[in-house]
Amino acid sequence: MIRLNFEPRLDIPGWINVLIPVAAVIFGLFAGGILFFILGVNPFQAYWAVLIGAFGSIYGLSEIVTKAIPLMFTALAGLICYKMLIWNIGAEGQLCMGAIATVAAVRYLFVDSWVIMFIIMFIAAALAGGIWGGIAGFLRAKWNVNETITTLMLNYVAINISEYFIYGPWKDPMSMGFPFTANFPDSARLWVWGNTRIHAGIFVALTIAVILQVLLKRSKWGYEIRVIGENPRAARYGGMNIAHNILLVTFIGGAVAGLAGMSEMAGLHGRMSRGFTLGYGYTGILVAWLARLSPIYVPLVSFLMGVLLVGGDTLQVVMGLPLASIQILQGLILFSVLAAETLSKYKIRLIRISAGPAEEAK
Amino acid sequence: MDFLIAIMASAVRSGTPVLFATLGEVVSERAGVMNLGLEGVMLIGAYTGFAVTRATGNPWLGILASFAAGAAITLIHSFLCITLMCNQVVSGLAMVLTGYGLSALLGRNVIGETISGMAPLKLPILGDIPFIGPIFFQHNAMVYASYLLTAALCWFLFRTRPGLNLRAVGENPRAADAMGIPVSAIRYFYSIFGGGLAGIGGGYLSVVYAQMWIEGMTSGRGWIAVALVIFGLWNPARAAVGAYLFGGVEALQLRMQAMGTSISASLLLTLPYLMTIIVLTIVAIRADKGIMLRAPAALSVPFRREDRD
Question: Which of A125, A286, B101, B179 could join A258 via S-S bond, C-beta 3.0 to 4.6 A?
Answer without folding.
Answer: A125
